[in-house]
Every structure is written in structure tokens, then in C-alpha cells.
Amino acid sequence: MEKLDLKTPNFTNENIEKIAELFPNCVTEKKSESGELERSIDFDALRQELSDSIVEGPQERYSLNWPGKREALVTANTPISKTLRPCRDESVDFDSTKNIFIEGDNLDALKLLQESYLSKIKMIYIDPPYNTGNDFIYNDNFTVDKDEYDEASGQRDEEGGRLVANPDSNGRYHSDWLSMIYPRLKLARNLLCDDGVIFISIDDGEQANLKRLCDEIFGGDNFLSSIAWKKRSSPDARSTIGSIHDWILCYLKNGEQPKKAIGKIPLSEQRQAAYTNPDSDSRGPWASVDMTGMLGRATKGQFFEVALPSGRSITPPKGRSWGLAEATFDRLCADNRIWFGSSGDNVPRIKKFLSESEGQVVPSIWDMDEVGSNDEASKEISELFGAPKIFDTPKPYRLIQRMLQTSTAKGGDEIILDFFSGSGSTAHAVMQLNAEDGGTRQCISVQLPEVTNDKSEAFKAGYKTIAEISKERIRRAGKKIKQDNAGKEGRENLDTGFRVFKIDSSNMVDVHVSPDEAHPELFDTHVENIKKDRSSEDLLFQVLLDWGVDLSLPIIREEIAGKEVFFVDDNALVACFDEGINEEFVTELATRKPLRVVFRDDGFGSGKDGDSVKINVEQVFKLKSPATDIKVI
Fold first, then answer.
1. Do 183 and 256 share a structural domain?
2. What is the pLDDT of residues 320-333, one digit of tens each?
3. Which of 85, 282, 283, 386 is least buried, going by the fewest C-beta atoms within 10 A?
4. Model pLDDT for residues 181-199, shown as the tens digit of each residue
């Protein structure tokens, strides 16, 4: 039986395979640190393949670079041996919810989600640290120290001499911040579906750097807009030029499908006010639009005479044509869709009914009256928690609702990801919009258990980490949304729960023994390869991650022949991690004809007896359920 390796994908190896398909002559071999041969890329040959002239050495090119960039790329591609452990006690509706909350470093979380959610996320929203000069806690091990930075950036030579008289004291902050965000965005892009979209909040401090970084990761052609969000009504009086806005960078996964990625948004109150009903049309309020068109592509059929109700006849205004053919005009007239003004003597216009409106094009400036402000966000938190200043910089859920309305279908079932969850505004927005339009969108939230300041209101209220605030906000928001929608049709199907997972080390025991230390007695002590403190449910979710199965699928426990068995999404995956697996049990299990089944490697026993049971198990499945894929951990 094939054994699951229970590790995240090795993107370096995958990238080498992709290059090998395109340029097989660029793949070579080199010795690894352990002295074994491994595949590698001949970058000189690859550079030549990508050039129509002779490449003699490094060439100047347009790029964004900083000390630590290569290490950040390596970090993005390096696999990890970690897992997600379910935490039922902190979850809400664990067995039925489709929403997920992951507590831990988002770099690890993004790697762990690569198999299960590859190309499945419709929208990502993140509100990362703005790098205002304060230390941020995502200090990955590839960030450089001051001495390394000075030398790499050219501020000092190898002998320690200063090369720049007055170096930018803030330069290192930019490098560390870029090294933090770079691998996370690279991994996030993998998760977006082909018509997916990402929104990123940022201020002026790193907006320019983030824009260039995203151009590199997502492609400049996939840039959609830098949206200006007016977050407050008046500037800080202490500032020379007080900022009242933040930026929201918007990128598509595939710039060739902008209409699938971004739709229209509901009409604003101001736009709706333009719809009136002066002729008491039974179809309701309407607005009139210009019926004329440009001359360039007009046909002869668009130059006809129109008889006005007043008795006067007119032709298209000078330099214009009618925007439709005469037959179409006659049809619209018969349907009372042409407006000649209250006097019946105006140039005709076409009636567009409010009931038929598909919404309005998304503007590049979002006003706080429509999507909320910083003050509104703070009030939302205060009202939910019944205490002031639980979280310093929340985003209003209406702001994120606007993003959801642009990138997901009305009443849709798409998956949303926020890997800087903060106060939990994104999960709140998803639940609220689902309640409003009957959608079944799912939300995946990720938040580091960053410790709250011991003098903060959050700490005084008993919230020791940001993750605790985020989870509690989702609980309270979900409860309030259900209360606010009591009696509404479909309320019973509204999902306000979430499964909590915590990032931890692998469930498997790590055994590192040199050949000189190996002896039979040692192997006897390491027969069990699973850590003592791990449950069957821990093992199940690590298998789901490794096999690329959705973590939100329904799971049912059953007892078969005295053994605990997990059925994931009916028969999509069946798992049993009990010991003493035998033919009687497997025969009954095989009659269910599962698509995939997984056991513990030591669940069959040890030595020759265990090997014999394994062989018999495989034969039983070949006979009764030949399509079943069998694996062990």
C-alpha cells in the first residue's frame, strides 16, 4: 500500500517539472547537501532560451528587488511538516458548518491549504500590517539583520566601511515587510480560481511597493484598480496634509476574464433616486437614457424620421445618428418604452426600468456613506462586545460586503479567504450578505494568536490574543445576524458557524537516527509512528489535507465491527485509525464501496503477520470494491 507523506507540496520540485516540460535541455543534476543527486535547473541555459540574443551575463532589467527577496522565494517553496488540529470546543456547529477558522501563522496556513483549495477560492481580501514603522510580528527567519542588510543594500562594504553618508534609516523596514508579504501573496495566488480576484488594503507607506510586488506576482496585465476608500470625514489636524483615505489594490487571477471576475454592484441610493415614474407606468420607476448614437458605425437604417406626439417630425441631431434601427424603435414605442418628454415634443429617449437594472459599474472611489468608515467599524465592535476599544483598527463589514458584491454572484456559494483575519470583519460580512441575498458563501479565516497588550481593553476583557477576539466576534456577529433575521424565509439554512483548527506539528513521530546508532532494540521502541497526544480526528484532518480534500465536507462517525470509522462526504473518503484491522472488518467496509480509504500503517499488526493482513485487505478491496484507492499513514 502507498504511504501518505503528510507534507505540504514541494513547489521547487513542481516548478522544475514544469520547466522541464518546456525546456528539457535546461534541466541538469547536482549533488544535494546529503551528497545525493537531484534534479536542478541550468539557469544560464534557461536565460539563453528566453532571449533572442546571446546572453553573456547578468543584464539590467526592470524589477523590484530588496535584500532578502531570494530567501523569501525559497521560503514560499519550502514544504513544512505541520498539520491542522480540529478544536471542537471553540467551534460553532462543527459538524454542519462550511466556514473555517485557522489559528496560527498564515504562511503555514497557506501552505497547508494548497492541496485542498488549489484554484478554488473566488475572492481573497486581506488587511495586512501597514508597516507604519512599528515592529510587526511576521518576522520570518529569512529577514536579514542590520549588518547583513547594510552590506547587501550597499550601505557598507565587506570591510565594514560606510558607503552612504546618510542611509535611509527606514529602508530595512521596507525590506522586512516585503519579505513578509511576498511568499504569502505567491501562495495565495495559487488558491484563486481562474476568475478569482484579490483585494488588499494598504496606506500610502507601502502602496507603491505593494503595487510593484503584485505586478510581479499576479502580472501587470491583471491589475484592475487602486480603489480609494474614504475612511474618515476629516483629516488629522496635526498633519500637514491629512489622509482621509486608504487604498485597496485589486488584481485578477486571469485578466482575460474581467467580466467573470468583477460584476456590477447594486445601485446607490443617489442612483435609485434618479428613477421616477412621471407617466405612472405599471412597470414602476424608470430613468431615460440617450437614444442617439455615434456616426462612425451607423447604418442607413439608423437615419429615419421620427414623428413626435406633438405632431412635429424630427431626424437625428446634427452629427449624430439614432442608436437603433427603425424597426427596433417601432417595437419599443409600441411597448411604451420611448419617452418624448412631458410635452411630447422632446428628442426621444429610451426608458430603463429600475426593476430591470443590473446595477452600476464599480467606481474607483468608495465613499464611507456607502461602505462604512473607521468610526463605523469601531462602533460595530463596541456594540457586539459591549466594551470600547476591543480592537484598534477594524474594517467595517460593509466595506468587505462591497467587495463580495463585485466578485461573487447574488445568492452565490463561492469560497472567500482572509488570511489576516484581524477582528473577523470578513467572516461577519460573508454571513451578513448571505442573510440578505440567500447565498451560501463560505469563509476561511486565518489569524495568528498575537498576544494583546496587557494594558489594552481587550486584555482587560479577557482576550489574551487577537485570534480570540476574531473568533468571539464571529460568534457574536453570527448570533446577532440570526436574531435580526428571525422569521425570514430560509433563516434555518443560514450558516453562522465555523470549524476551528489550530496549526501544530505533524501528528507523525519524527525519528532521526544515524546508521551507526541503528539496532533492532531501537526499532522496537519506535513501532508506533503517531504521537501519543493525537486523536483519531487529528489524524483524519491531516489525511484530508494531504489528499487535497475540502476541510468543510460533512463527516459522520460510525462503528463497524467494534471499530470507529469516519465517513467524509458520504463515501468520498473513509478512514479508520484503530488497531486490529482484520478481514471481517474490511469485508464489511468494502461493501460500502468508498472512493478512498485510509488506515494506520501499524493498524494491521507488526512484522510478517501485519504484512499478511495488508495483503489480504488489498485482495478484499480488489474483489469487492476494485475502484477504491487504499493508503496508510
1. yes
2. 999 999 999 999 99
3. 282
4. 999 999 999 999 999 999 9
